[in-house]
Design a protein that fits this description.
By secondary structure, the chain is α/β, with parallel strands linked by helices. It contains 11 helices and 11 strands.
């Protein structure tokens, strides 16, 4: 775990800025003089893909703004990178998160990468950064559990959680088999699950099936299709989530971008965060992507994104990343 003293230092770095940080004295009780500045708790980013951060120049733009095109383009460049190259890319992205006050991150790594290089890189980086950041790792099949050529059980032995992505399969039958395998692996390894699920506007209902068979703790990532469901069905899902004590993670910025398909009607892409909070469901947020084919930017200057609707409950704030005018959105979230 991160020490109190280090956490205090990180908070002051965020407040004061690295350029203004010359000396920080922390006494034996973990107190310090912030010189009248505001100190805030550290942030949690509960859904992030650092392995493909800053790869937009390699993949090219996502002309359709769809998840399908993003996955296709990413998979074409993914296997050209070595373990060390992937680790360096991840580290650069996570250090940016740390600079902006994030000390706890859950990263999803593509087990479909050649020789599970992304998984290996994540495990190495977790150890390398353990003194400054708490990193949870999730092995998940970006392209499909049955097409990527790697074994989920083998890959998940190295990560903290077992991942999945039933929407990547060709049909419902294969998606059900996908979830059955994921839950069996989680049970065998005695690990929790974090599943990319019901991620588009097709009104897939894989979360319902997963909640009905899961024996280990499960986090439902995205759940975008719940936005399009009728209220009676949604109430049923809420009850199942509560019964399983499951969590939900939304990545609003990427969801909005990937929902911006050509033509109309245009979907909103975000799950029912505000409702879930009222239903006492544990909801967390994640950045998801950083300057890649899934999300080409984080956000513009002074942009604030209200994810709850009319009443500003949780807002993503932006800070400048560098001298080139890049900005980062940051949100206050509930830890898992």
């Amino acid at each position: 775990m991160i020490s109190t003293q280090l956490l205090v230092i990180v908070m002051v770095m965020v407040i004061k800025g690295l350029s203004g940080m010359k000396e920080l004295r922390v006494d034996g009780r973990g107190t310090f003089n912030a010189e009248g500045r505001l100190a805030l708790p550290a942030f949690y980013d509960m859904h992030f893909h650092p392995e493909n951060a800053f790869t937009l120049g390699l993949t090219g733009e996502n002309s359709s703004s769809t998840l399908k095109e993003a996955v296709t383009k990413w998979s074409k460049v993914r296997d050209s990178m070595s373990v060390e190259e992937i680790k360096d890319r991840m580290k650069k992205a996570l250090l940016l998160e740390l600079y902006h006050g994030v000390t706890h991150v859950r990263i999803h790594v593509d087990m479909c990468s050649k020789d599970i290089r992304s998984v290996k890189a994540a495990v190495l980086l977790k150890e390398e950064m353990k003194e400054i950041m708490d990193i949870q790792t999730v092995a998940f099949p970006e392209q499909s559990l049955f097409k990527c050529g790697n074994n989920l059980l083998y890959a998940s032995q190295f990560t903290d959680l077992v991942g999945g992505k039933p929407d990547a399969e060709d049909d419902v039958e294969m998606s059900i088999k996908h979830l059955s395998l994921v839950t069996s692996v989680a049970k065998k390894l005695e690990k929790s699950m974090d599943i990319h699920i019901d991620q588009d506007a097709r009104r897939t209902r894989f979360a319902e099936y997963l909640l009905s068979i899961a024996e280990n703790h499960v986090t439902l990532s995205h759940m975008s299709s719940l936005h399009y469901e009728d209220d009676d069905y949604v109430r049923k899902i809420y009850q199942m989530i509560r019964n399983k004590k499951a969590s939900v993670v939304s990545a609003p910025l990427t969801a909005v971008y990937l929902a911006a398909e050509k033509g109309y009607p245009k979907g909103r892409g975000i799950t029912r965060i505000r409702e879930m909070m009222k239903e006492e469901i544990n909801v967390c947020l994640g950045n998801d992507d950083l300057q890649n084919v899934f999300l080409p930017v984080w956000c513009r200057r002074h942009f604030a994104f209200n994810v709850y609707g009319n009443k500003p409950r949780t807002i993503l704030y932006c800070r400048r990343l560098d001298t080139f005018g890049n900005y980062q959105c940051r949100e206050r979230v509930q830890p898992h």
